[in-house]
Amino acid sequence: MSTTAGKVLKCKAAVAWEAGKPLVIEEVEVAPPQKMEVRVKILFTSLCHTDLYFWEAKAQDSVFPRIFGHEASGIVESVGEDVTELVPGDHVLPVFTGECRDCAHCKSEESNMCTLLRINTDRGVMINDEKSRFSINGKPIYHFVGTSTFSEYTVVHVGCLAKINPLAPMDKVCVLSCGISTGLGATLNVAKPKKGSSVAIFGLGAVGLGAAEGARLAGASRVIGVDFKNSRYEEAKKFGVTEFINPKDYTKPVQEVIAEMTDGGVDRSVECTGNIDAMISAFECVHDGWGVAVLVGVPHKDAIFKTPPINFLNERTLKGTFFGNYKPRSDLPSVVEMYMNKELEVEKFITHEVPFAEINKAFELMLKGEGLRCIIKME
Amino acid sequence: MSSTVGQVIRCKAAVSWEAGKPLVIEEVEVAPPQNMEVRVKILFTSLCHTDVYFWEAKGQTPLFPRIFGHEAGGIVESIGEGVTDLKPGDKVLPIFTGECKECRHCKSSESNMCDLLRINTDRGAMLEDGKTRFSKNGQPIHHFLGTSTFSEYTVIHVGCLAKINPEAPLDKVCVLSCGISTGLGATLNVAKPTKGSTVAIFGLGAVGLAAAEGARIAGASRIIGVDLNPSRFEEAKKFGLTEFVNPKDHNKPVQEVLVEMTDGGVDRSVECTGNVNAMISAFECVHDGWGVAVLVGVPNKDDAFKTHPINLLNERTLKGTFFGNYKPRSDIPAVVEKYMNKELEVEKFITHKVTFSEINKAFEYMLKGESLRCIISMEN
C-alpha cells in the first residue's frame, strides 16, 4: 500500500448524480490525505436510513453529485500530516461524527458532541481546505457526513476514525459504526435500565432493535416493542423483545395501554422512530417517581414536543441522545470488544449481502422496508 | 403532657371560614390520634405560598372551614395505635407529603412520591376513618395537606412526620419542612451541579433562593438569577447569586441571553416560578451535550410544556422534582443536620416574625410580596 501514499488514487465509487436516482459506479480520483486526514480503503459498508434520507433530499437541500455511505469498516492506506494515532494497516470504523479530544464537549464525560467534528449534513467538503478529495475529470464530487464510504477509498478526518481490534471480522463490525451503536448506547449509556426492570422500545427497525439488544444485555425483565407493523414482532423476539404493541390495535393512546400493562408505567423507554407523537407517548408511558424516557429518532424540523408539565413534576425524566452517547474514538472500540466477547450479538442484524456493483439493491430493500442491514462488499 | 393522652384537647386554631377572608382565632377541639396517627403540639409555623393559593381557592373546589398551615416545627404530645417510630416529647417537622416506607415509591431510591401518603390537596379528612380530628361545637373543620399546622395542636399521620435532632431550634428549622427543602433538594438531589459549574435559577422567592443556596453549597462558580422583579436582586446576593437577568430588559428570549452570557448555555438550571414560559426558557438555556434543567414550580393545569425535539436530541436533560426529591422521614432529618453543621444557612430566609394572634399579618406580607418567610410563634 505504501506505493500509493502521497499520490492520487483511481478507484471505483458509487456516485449519486441526482437526488433519488440510482447510484452509478464510476471511476473516481481520490486525492491524498491532508493535515489531520486519513485515506482509508473501505472493505465493507452498509446502508443506513440517514443515507437514504439525504439521497432522496425531499425535505432539505443536499449537494450533488455526492458519495454517500457512513456505516463501514476499512484499513488505513495512508495518513496526512500530524496524524500520530493511526498508521497504514490499522483497522478502523469511519464514524459520521467525530472526537477532536480538545473541545469542551470532548473533555466532558457526558457529551459526545465534539464542537469541531460533530455531525454536519450540509458540509460536502473537508474542513482543512474546504474542498473535496473526490473528483471525476477534475469535477468535484461531494462528501457526506465526513465519511463517504460508498467508495473503494475515501478520505476521513482522523477524529472520525475509531481504531479497532484487528481480529474483528470487518464484514460484521462495519454495522457498529452507526445505527446499532446508536440504539445500543441509547439504552446502555443513557436509559441505563436496571436488571429486572421494564423497558419500552418505540420503533423496531435496526436502531430500535439495537436499543432492545441493550435492554437484553442490561438484564431487563420485560422489553415491550411498539411498532405499527405486526410483521416486525417475530424478528424482534430474537433481540429480546418479550411483548409487542401495535398502537393501531387500540383506540386509547398507546401510553395508556403501556401504563396499564405495567402497573403505572415502564421504568425506561427508548424512542427510535422520530415520529413526534411516538416521542410524546414514549415520555408519558414511563412510571412516575423514577421513569426515564430517551429520545433517539430524529423528527422533521417543524415538530414540537408537547406535554403537560405535571409529567415532569411527578419525577419523570426526559433525555435525548446522539449516537448512543458514544464518543467515537474513545468508546466505539469497546463496543467492538463487546461483540468479540460474545456479549453483543451482531449477526442477527445482518439480513442481506450484495457486491459493490449491486449497491442499488440495498436501497431497494430499504425502500421496501425489507431486512435490517444489507452489507455491501467492496471487493 | 401525659394528662391529655387519649382525651380531646381544647386549644386555639386559626380557622379559615371562607375563601380569601382573614383567619379567625377560635377555640377548637382536637380529637386524640387514631391508628398510625400522632397528635403534635405546634410551637412554630410559617406561611408558604401553597397555603395562600388554597386559601384564596380561586381555581379549585373550596373546602371550608379549614385549618391551613404545613410548614412547622413541633413536639409529639401523644401517639395512636400502631405508632412505634415516635414517642411523646420527640421533636418533629410535619410534612405535607409522606413516606409509608412500604410502597414501591418508598422502596425506590429515586422516588419520594409515596403511593399512600403523597400530597393530596383535595382531602380534608384523615385516611383512617375519612373524618376530621378538628371540630368546633360539633362542626367539623377540614384538614389541609394532612398537616393543618395553624393550630396549637394538630393530628398527623406518622408517615408525615420527620423526627429531628432534639437540639435543633424549632423557630428556625420549621421552615425546612417545605419551601426551602424543595428548592435546596431540587439543586442538590436532582440538578446536582458539580463544583465550579454554572447554574441559572428562575424565580427568586423562597424556593428559588433555596435552590441558589444549594448551588452555593455545591460550589457552583456562577449562579445567575432570573426574575421579573429587580428589587429581589439585592436580597438574592446573600444567597450566593452572582449575576441577574431581568427578562423585561431584553428584546430576545431570556434563554438566548443566558446562552450568550455563558458561551453556549448553563450547566444546570432550576425553575422555581411555575410559569410555563419560564419552564421552557429554563430548559432551552442549558448547554447542549451535558445540560440539565430541573422544573420545580407548579403551573396551572392547562399550560403545556413545548420545545423543539432537537433540544433533547443534542443531549439536554429535562427533569422535574417534587419536594426536592427528599423522602420526608428518611431525608429531612439530614437537612436539619446540614443546618446544625452550619453548612446550610437558614436565618437569612426568615424576614419577619409574628405571634399566633397576628397570623393574618403573615398573609398580608406574602400577598404584598414583602417577605421570604414569616415565622408565626404559637406561644405568646
TrEMBL record, chain A:
Domain Alcohol dehydrogenase-like C-terminal: 206-338
Species in which this protein is naturally found: Penstemon davidsonii
Regions that span the bilayer: none
Residue ranges of domain Alcohol dehydrogenase-like N-terminal in the record: 35-164
Name under which the protein is recorded: alcohol dehydrogenase
Enzymatic reactions: a primary alcohol + NAD(+) = an aldehyde + NADH + H(+); a secondary alcohol + NAD(+) = a ketone + NADH + H(+)
Compartments where found: Cytoplasm
Chief location of this protein within or outside the cell: cytoplasm
SUPFAM superfamilies per UniProt: GroES-like, NAD(P)-binding Rossmann-fold domains
Listed EC numbers: 1.1.1.1
Similarity annotation: Belongs to the zinc-containing alcohol dehydrogenase family.
From TrEMBL, chain B:
Cofactor(s) listed: Zn(2+)
Quaternary organization: Homodimer.
Domain Alcohol dehydrogenase-like N-terminal per the UniProt entry, residue ranges: 36-164
Broad class of where this protein is predominantly found: cytoplasm
PROSITE patterns listed in its UniProt record: ADH_ZINC
InterPro entries named in the record: ADH-like_C (IPR013149), ADH-like_N (IPR013154), ADH_Zn_CS (IPR002328), GroES-like_sf (IPR011032), NAD(P)-bd_dom_sf (IPR036291)
Catalysed reactions, semicolon-separated: a primary alcohol + NAD(+) = an aldehyde + NADH + H(+); a secondary alcohol + NAD(+) = a ketone + NADH + H(+)
Protein name in the entry: Alcohol dehydrogenase 1
This protein's record includes keyword Oxidoreductase: yes
Transmembrane segments: none
Pfam families per record: ADH_N (PF08240), ADH_zinc_N (PF00107)
Annotated ranges, domain Alcohol dehydrogenase-like C-terminal: 206-337
Record EC number: 1.1.1.1
Record's subcellular location: Cytoplasm
Entry similarity comment: Belongs to the zinc-containing alcohol dehydrogenase family.
UniProtKB keywords: Cytoplasm, Metal-binding, NAD, Oxidoreductase, Zinc
